[in-house]
Inverse folding.
């Protein structure tokens, strides 16, 4: 699905989602075209992962201990507007869906300097038991937190701009 025709509307939608990271675009992110190189978009998205996991109730103690973690399964990036040196950027992240082992999220990389969304970074990640290096189900309390978090995102009247390349069947708790 394509972003709304009105870039200001997409910007306002993104700003209503939780802010998970913020930075100024540094010189080492800039390529020979004078804008941020594509490889740094994933890096900027990664900067918001831990704050987002905390927000949605992923147990930080299990992640920090090395007992649990996430493996990336799929990522779709839509580049909408370039980012340039020194621009003020914020990452706003929303939970699209989840199942017993995976989460589907979208980062919006928002250019606060120019008041537009620079990128939509859609991802799905698998919850992992790092001791055996296999996928595992979320703990029951985490599933409850995810259920409430998704309800909170849905209450925002947020219509995520998904690519269609990632789909999870929502579980019923």
């Amino acid at each position: 699905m394509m972003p709304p025709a009105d870039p200001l509307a997409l910007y306002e939608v993104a700003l209503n989602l939780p802010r998970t990271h913020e930075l100024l675009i540094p010189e080492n992110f800039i390529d020979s075209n004078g804008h941020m190189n594509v490889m740094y978009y994933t890096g900027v998205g990664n900067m918001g992962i831990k704050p987002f996991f905390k927000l949605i109730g992923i147990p930080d103690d299990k992640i920090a201990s090395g007992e649990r973690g996430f493996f990336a399964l799929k990522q779709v990036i839509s580049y909408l507007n370039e980012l340039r040196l020194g621009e003020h950027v914020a990452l706003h992240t929303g939970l699209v869906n989840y199942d017993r082992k995976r989460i589907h999220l979208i980062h919006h990389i928002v250019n606060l300097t120019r008041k537009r969304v620079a990128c939509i970074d859609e991802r799905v990640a698998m919850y992992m038991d790092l001791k055996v290096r296999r996928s595992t189900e979320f703990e029951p309390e985490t599933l409850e937190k995810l259920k409430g978090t998704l309800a909170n995102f849905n209450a925002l009247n947020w219509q995520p701009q998904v690519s269609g390349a990632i789909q999870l069947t929502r579980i019923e708790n």
Observations:
- Residues 69 and 85 are 33 Å apart (CA to CA).
- The first helix runs from residue 7 to 15.
- The mean pLDDT is 90.
- The beta strands are 19-24, 68-79, 88-98, 102-111, 116-129, 134-135.
